Amino acid sequence: MKKMVIAGGTGFLGRSLVEVFQKKNWNITILTRGVSQTKHGVHFVHWDAASVGEWSNCLNGADVLINLNGKSVDCRYTEKNKSLIYSTRLDATHALGKAIKQCSSPPKVWMNAASATIYRHSLDQEMDEYTGEIGSGFSVDVCLKWEAAFHHYDLPHTRKIVLRTGIVLGKEGGPLKPLAMLARLGAGGKHGRGNQYFSWLHTSDFCGVVEFFISHPETIGVYNLTSPVPIPNAEVMRELRNALRIPFGLPIPKWLLEIGASLIRTETELILKSRRVIPRRLEEAGYVFQFRKIREAVKELVAR
């Protein structure tokens, strides 16, 4: 039986991976800050996500290690939250790197979460892994330090892959539910100018890409995990309204978004930054997307 270890696997994406790979009879271990236990066939192992401990034994003989650990960026960027956003990513990555170096039989592949927000705000140019321009500011600095922590470890027996993931759409998490709620309340129009690009990925493709990387040993390095067709925010909201059969949606201007973000303790960057990212390396490697266009993805998710 093949063995997968997911660090920080109790969240939205981790649960999606468990659902898919359990059906394929994988032995799955989740590193969690919660208690060690076995539940529904999944092994939960306690770790502090910062230092090497007994938990590192579960990495021996693993076929795959996937690190998803990190505080959600869906929060206000206070100094406390900024510190946690950095530390939960960097400390966990360093702990895993050190643990792998001590393994007698290290994981065959280590996939580390990263973010497509590493690229600059772009209305004019598609950002791929070859020519994409790195941005600036707090979020980009987090991404740069996160990837640097991952690249710090030279692991000759472990294939390493960086997952520069866009905004993942799913039924049980991500932004789909709050966006659908806005649409149902009549506020399903464009956000701000509505021309900012939305780089997205269906949960089925997130899991599909992970499986693709596992079965293709030639894949290595940095990959953008987004649909090949990023689209402007106004089109996203129109397709969502169509899927929900809502004929009209009031637009939300930037000033109102800023008030709303303050009230719900988040940042407008998450919706106003233009992420025009494409997965050039992934398509070159031969991955075939289950959901290329937002219309197909939204219809499927709303139907579920």
Structural features, described:
- The chain is 37% helix and 17% strand.
- It has one domain: NAD(P)-binding Rossmann-like Domain (Rossmann fold, 3-Layer(aba) Sandwich), CATH 3.40.50.
- The strands form 3 sheets. The protein has an 8-stranded mixed beta sheet, sandwiched between helices. It has a two-stranded parallel ribbon with strand order 8-10. A two-stranded antiparallel ribbon has the order 9-12.
- It is α/β, with parallel strands linked by helices and 304 residues long.
- Helix 2 runs parallel beside helix 3.
Write the layout of secondary structure elements.
Blueprint: E1 3-7, H1 12-22, E2 27-32, E3 37-39, E4 42-46, E5 64-67, H2 79-102, E6 109-115, H3 138-151, E7 159-165, E8 167-169, H4 176-184, E9 197-198, E10 200-202, H5 203-215, E11 221-225, E12 231-232, H6 233-244, H7 254-263, H8 269-272, H9 280-285, H10 294-303
Parallel strand pairs: 1-2, 1-5, 2-4, 5-6, 6-7, 7-11, 8-10
Antiparallel strand pairs: 3-4, 9-12
Helix pairs in contact: 1-5, 2-3, 4-6, 6-10
Please name the CATH topology. Answer: Rossmann fold
What gross morphology would you assign? globular
* CATH H-level superfamily: NAD(P)-binding Rossmann-like Domain
Count of distinct strands:
12
* Biggest sheet, spatial arrangement of strands: 3-4-2-1-5-6-7-11
